[in-house]
Amino acid sequence: MLYREAGQFKATYAEDMAIFPIRQDRIALAVLLGIAFIGVPLLATFRIWPFGTDYLLWAILLPFLILALAAIGTNILVGYCGQISLGSGAFMAIGAYSAYKLATGVHIPLAWLGFAIAIPPLPVLASILLGGFMAAGAGILFGIPSLRIKGLYLAVATLAAQFFFDWAFLRLPWFTNYAPSGSVNAPELDFFGMVVRSPVERYLLCLAVVTVMAVLAKNLVRGNLGRQWMAIRDMDIAAELIGIRPLYAKLTAFAVSSFIIGVAGALWAFVYLGSWEPLAFSIDRSLELLFMVIIGGLGSIMGSFIGAAFILIVPIMLNVIPTKLGLPLSTQTITHLQFIIFGSLICYLLIKEPHGFARLISIGKEKLRLWPFPY
Amino acid sequence: MRAPNANEILLQVEGVALAFGGVKALRDVSFNVKKGEIRAIIGPNGAGKTSMLNVVNGFYHPNHGAITFKGSTRSKMQPFEAARGGIARTFQNVALFKGMSALDNIMAGRTLKVRRGLLWQLLRYGPALAEEIEHRRKVEEIIDFLEIETIRKVPVGRLPYGLQKRVELGRALAMEPDLLLLDEPMAGMNLEEKEDMSRFIIDVNNHYGTTIALIEHDMAVVMDLSDRVAVLDHGVKIADGTPDEVKRSQAVIDAYLGVAH
């Protein structure tokens, strides 16, 4: 009954083209943002339930935000442009390690030329953004095969990126500043003199980055470039005929997607992990991101958030709920159950609803608008 | 408004030959399309009509021959270059972007007219938003023209076939083409839908002055709509002229009805 758009007339095209054309959705979003930006930090600062400990911030909200950002990046490539990628983890790693190198200073001795490239340590924010740009460059490079090959074959090409960078960051000591253990530590998170240390500060930092980038990504996908991507995804021949250059459309998708994933990788390393090894960005991460996108909704920014939340929360729920019911499960059982649930859910969604939870929600909203009448 | 100087030649196809291995799809075909006319290409199945359109808009590269469009001659070009030159096209089997709404499909047709780049589109503010709204206004005119207002937000995959054809025509119109190629615009339609589509084709020609080259199997439609008709059979042009001339041509009658051996 509350969800009605009767009486909300749109007098301009700008109003009709808004992200949330229905007033109730706008109110819901404003409330959500209010809770996220003001409510959560306040509760966490004064340690009010459920923020009595830092567990919720550290173990759920922080990874949720960063992985949602990476999922948005994956979704732009896989969901919007239809180019299957198994290399998201590698692009996260490129973002993370580039940011790390830039934040600690780059020194490339070019002995045979008689000089060395030396870049002094850059501020953290610049490093993170430049990490994104490095990932974008790598994305363009590994996107070039997409001009010739499609589908599974492209997936294999991106898989090659994954294994190559896994190897590079593990075996080439230059990337880890010759750390003997192969694990590296993030620099202090100093933003123009403001040092981010506590979980609440980290949370707010990630929230701000994710919000801004999600809005920009949404702008892109509902603009002309987004339509070009979707056109390439849906029918590349017809897309060429209306003047879309496949080269430009595909490589911009790779670049934008890798940039977002790269920034997410840098945040994951710097803000969430603090110290990390290449294993943090293995093929498992790539697959996890792909699952998030498929479950949440291919071709939906909101779906990326839903998918990330689902993938993160299910294991925790599997742990918490049986314990509350007095049936504690062993860790192995939980892991197996997780595989079963994700596997069957992905099969089900791919067959029944390829657009994932996001589409189910929008169908739900359509029904809600008419409720209690069927049509 | 029909173009006043209807004798200006917009497209000249000169001695085009196209072979797929041993199959000769087109053999030395020449014809022209004058500015502002409705030109039909007909012929029995497998005559090479669709191949001809594919050559014109750059899908196939002819083995021989040249194509002169708007005064510039070329033998090879990519489809997006043809699009930039002002050639739009619809397909025999609808080739819409299934996951996108009718509105987005037609908006995608305006890709070549978009001037603001990636960074502006990221911000979607000021001039970028103004441009987007301007394109939307143009697209809404087309939506009005084709009478598909009610389905503008519906994903085209859910639309019935006749409406999909109409959306596809809308997407081609959004390009504001000089030459519009229609590959069997009425295939698989019932009588009313055919009448609607014929009306739209005539209106596009009259209202926007767009030159149209179409392939069609429905002879009644072809003879009524077109100014001139070219007939292909087995990759060879066997007749060319006004509908009445073509109807009387013995070669055409033989091609369609067969000859006694």
Automatic annotation (TrEMBL), chain B:
Domain ABC transporter: 11-259
CDD domains with a match to the protein in the record: ABC_Mj1267_LivG_branched
Keyword Cytoplasm attached: no
Keyword Cytoplasm applies: no
GO molecular function: ATP binding; ATP hydrolysis activity
Superkingdom to which the source organism belongs: Bacteria
GO cellular component entries: plasma membrane
One Pfam family recorded for the sequence: BCA_ABC_TP_C
Keyword set, alphabetical order: ATP-binding, Nucleotide-binding, Transport
UniProt function note: Involved in beta-(1-->2)glucan export. Transmembrane domains (TMD) form a pore in the inner membrane and the ATP-binding domain (NBD) is responsible for energy generation.
Protein name (database record): ATP-binding cassette domain-containing protein
Organism name: Bradyrhizobium pachyrhizi
Source taxonomy: Bacteria, Pseudomonadati, Pseudomonadota, Alphaproteobacteria, Hyphomicrobiales
